[in-house]
Structures are given as C-alpha cells and as structure tokens.
Amino acid sequence: NAGVTQTPKFQVLKTGQSMTLQCAQDMNHNSMYWYRQDPGMGLRLIYYSASEGTTDKGEVPNGYNVSRLNKREFSLRLESAAPSQTSVYFCASSERQGQAEAFFGQGTRLTVV
Amino acid sequence: GESVGLHLPTLSVQEGDNSIINCAYSNSASDYFIWYKQESGKGPQFIIDIRSNMDKRQGQRVTVLLNKTVKHLSLQIAATQPGDSAVYFCAENLRGGGSNYKLTFGKGTLLTVNP
C-alpha cells in the first residue's frame, strides 16, 4: 500500500519557470491537501480539496493553482516560480474533512533560483 | 496569526525519561486535534488524536491531554527512546467556509533524546 505518492522528490527551477507537482493517493480518500513547510514556520495550508470536484484556498494560496483531477490525484501548479516559493511541499489526504487524520506524502523539495 | 502554537521550540531529554510537549490553541470551536511526528527528510506521521469531547487519550507509550478551559494540549511520551527524536506538531481542526474543515498546524517542537 503506497499511501500518498508525490513526484518529483526534488526540483530546481529558475525564477519565472512553471511546473506542476503531482500527488496521488490510493486510500480512496475524499479530501486532499497541499502544504508548504519552511524553517521555523511549521506547515501552512496552500489549497485543499474537500471532495472530488471542489477546491478551496488555504492560508497561503497566492502564486499557486490546483487541480483535483479525479478522486486519486491532486496537483499543485506554480505558474511563474519565485524564490519565495523555495520550500518543501507536502501533499496529504484524509478520509473526510472534519475529525479524520491526514496521511502525508514524503514531500517535494523545491528550490527556485 | 496562527491559532495553534507551541510553548517550547526545543526539548532535550535523557533516554528513559518522560517527555511532555505542549501546545496552545486559540479557537474554542475546534473539535479535533492531532499530534504528528516528523523525522528528518520525511513527511509528518500520525501519532495520536483526540476529540474535543475527551480530556485524555492513551496510545502506546503516548498520552494526549486536552484542557479546554485554558485551550491547552499536551503530548506525553513515556520512557523516551532515541527513536523518538523528531519534530512534533500539534494540529487543530478548524472550520473553514460552509461545512469544510481545515487542519492547521503549529510551528513544531524539536525533541532531542540523549543516550
């Protein structure tokens, strides 16, 4: 059981480039999330999808877009990368929103130069 | 600002001692809390959760206490082992728009276990 799988694991971008971070879960979960983690900042929610077909902004959505492609997949897109987006990105999923634990992927370490 | 925070950013204990990691939350309407453990280079891993209608919940070597009066959450680890060294996060289930909920994390506490 793979759980939550993120690709790529590492990425270096130049300022202004675009890229899409991929996330897939095999637990038949309804809700999916994208977080970023910066030193000393904990995890901050970028976007979430409560269920297939819906997406909502989290705490720090600026500069990002998301797509809930189907129940399994939730992608995060950076249209024009900036150095401030250098971070570790985590995708997570949970059975439902509300009182349910979230399972996390291994993360994508992104550096924007 | 963040509604979930931690009293201490670092905690150092001796192997075999008990560890207590604290967390404060500000939203009295939060109904669910989770503790996560994050080892270096890995994603957060679920440890234990507690609903707001409970004061205490026990797992294997871990206990979570919830004090709703002062909006305080703690994680107790018994007989701390070197493998417990990690960053520990508390997370709060906050209600977003409509019926949506969002899991919001505190900054984390780095636990170091000395042999």
Alpha-beta classification of chain A: mainly beta
Distance between the termini of chain A: 36 Å
Beta-strand fraction estimate of chain A: over 45%
The radius of gyration over CA of chain A amounts to 13 Å
Overall pLDDT score of chain A:
93
Low-confidence stretches of chain A at least 5 residues in length (pLDDT < 50)?
Answer: none
Q: What best-fitting shape of chain B do the alpha-carbon axes yield?
A: globular
Global outline of chain A: globular
Greatest chain-chain contact: A-B, 27 and 28 residues
Question: What is the helix/strand order of chain A?
Answer: EEEEEEEEEEE
Give the topology string of chain B: H per helix, E per strand: EEEEEEEEEEE
What's a quick, concise take on this entry?
The complex is a heterodimer of chains A (113) and B (115). By secondary structure, chain A is mostly beta strands.
Question: Can you give a write-up of this model?
Answer:
- The complex is a heterodimer of chains A (113) and B (115).
- By secondary structure, chain A is mainly β.
- Chain A is 0% helix and 52% strand.
- Chain A contains no helices and 11 strands.
- Chain A has strands at residues 4-7, 10-13, 19-25, 31-38, 42-49, 56-57, 64-68, 74-78, 87-94, 102-104, 108-112.
- In chain A, the strands form 2 sheets. In chain A, strands 2, 4, 5, 6, 9, 10 and 11 form a 7-stranded mixed sheet that branches.
- The termini of chain A are far apart.
- The model of chain A has no long low-confidence stretch (mean pLDDT 93).
- Chain B has 115 residues and is mostly beta strands.
- In chain B, 0% of the residues lie in helices and 56% in strands.
- Chain B has no helices and 11 strands.
- Chain B has strands spanning 4-5, 10-14, 19-25, 32-38, 45-51, 56-58, 62-67, 72-77, 86-95, 101-105, 109-114.
- In chain B, the strands form 2 sheets. In chain B, strands 2, 4, 5, 9, 10 and 11 form a 6-stranded mixed sheet that branches.
- In chain B, strand 6 and strand 7 form a beta hairpin.
- Chain B is globular and about 45 Å long.
- The mean pLDDT of chain B is 87.
- The interface between A and B is medium-sized, with 27 and 28 residues.
